[in-house]
């Protein structure tokens, strides 16, 4: 800016009899207002032109990346660069008579330039993240964590630059000085560093994805993962509450991920009923005849009865004592009945493990366990299927002259 222009208002005011000091202040104010007005007009025009230009390109291209850039306001923030550069260039001319104020204003503008750069970088990274999340391949990846990592490094560099500007020292010298305080920095950013390391391990080992159902008893979490960031993992529980878990807890503590069950097409049913031991006995002929009336095990009873009868006759077994030879028990027949019932149940996945098994006897009785997988993995339907199966089991026990153990219930005489 020419020296005559810089002092235009000053010379005009002094020629009107205003003191030199007041004229200098008024000259600075007038020039500052003119510069701010010019910068505002440039900012407005640049923003409008850049928005129209970017919108036009976005409409013509097939990719939606440029649309995402616009949605994240990247062109708008880029437009602020030109007026900011104008301010930095002409501020020394405005404050030519006020070197102290000039130094402060220049530092403020340079700090604003760093902050604007950081904002543009954040807009760009967010745009990349949003674009990748539209791709099925990256939809369940913790991209938010990586964005945060990049921004942490960018903010560290930006903060270093801001302090270097404020204290008037070179960036390299300031960064070297901070290197001596690295232990303190590590302590301050301990959780961030742990979260960063955990995020990498979680991503590499594919431990958790967005949308996975996880159970983390230590933190009371039981629901779907809705967000994975650098420091935390957010889980929306089934009661719609949100549990926040430190990311590094995923690699330091034990949790359950139900993804395998969700993708397998079956949800495990593993529940048992305890049969009172005193109700288990060998079957007599009249009981066997009654059991032949039960459709599901009719063929089984006929086949097994014939095999047992042939064996006992061949070996001349004395059947006056029931325990001699081979025999059927009401417990064994009931187990076979349940196995057949489960195999014929329409809501059970027949391609996965399916069995009814007898567990180790307990002081209360002998557990009879159903181990199978429902074909519907939705929680509400799964509970209905399991409830339907065990309703039938509890109701059918009496037909086999068996009893369910109930605490405090005396054995009928």
Automatic annotation (TrEMBL):
<dbReference type="GO" id="GO:0071470">
    <property type="term" value="P:cellular response to osmotic stress"/>
</dbReference>
<feature type="transmembrane region" description="Helical">
    <location>
        <begin position="178"/>
        <end position="200"/>
    </location>
</feature>
<keyword id="KW-1003">Cell membrane</keyword>
<keyword id="KW-1133">Transmembrane helix</keyword>
<feature type="transmembrane region" description="Helical">
    <location>
        <begin position="22"/>
        <end position="45"/>
    </location>
</feature>
<feature type="domain" description="Mechanosensitive ion channel MscS">
    <location>
        <begin position="191"/>
        <end position="259"/>
    </location>
</feature>
<dbReference type="InterPro" id="IPR006685">
    <property type="entry name" value="MscS_channel_2nd"/>
</dbReference>
<dbReference type="InterPro" id="IPR030192">
    <property type="entry name" value="YbdG"/>
</dbReference>
<keyword id="KW-0997">Cell inner membrane</keyword>
<feature type="transmembrane region" description="Helical">
    <location>
        <begin position="146"/>
        <end position="172"/>
    </location>
</feature>
<dbReference type="GO" id="GO:0005886">
    <property type="term" value="C:plasma membrane"/>
</dbReference>
<dbReference type="Pfam" id="PF00924">
    <property type="entry name" value="MS_channel_2nd"/>
</dbReference>
<protein>
    <recommendedName>
        <fullName>Mechanosensing system component YbdG</fullName>
    </recommendedName>
</protein>
<dbReference type="InterPro" id="IPR010920">
    <property type="entry name" value="LSM_dom_sf"/>
</dbReference>
<keyword id="KW-0472">Membrane</keyword>
<dbReference type="GO" id="GO:0008381">
    <property type="term" value="F:mechanosensitive monoatomic ion channel activity"/>
</dbReference>
<keyword id="KW-0812">Transmembrane</keyword>
<keyword id="KW-0346">Stress response</keyword>
<dbReference type="InterPro" id="IPR023408">
    <property type="entry name" value="MscS_beta-dom_sf"/>
</dbReference>
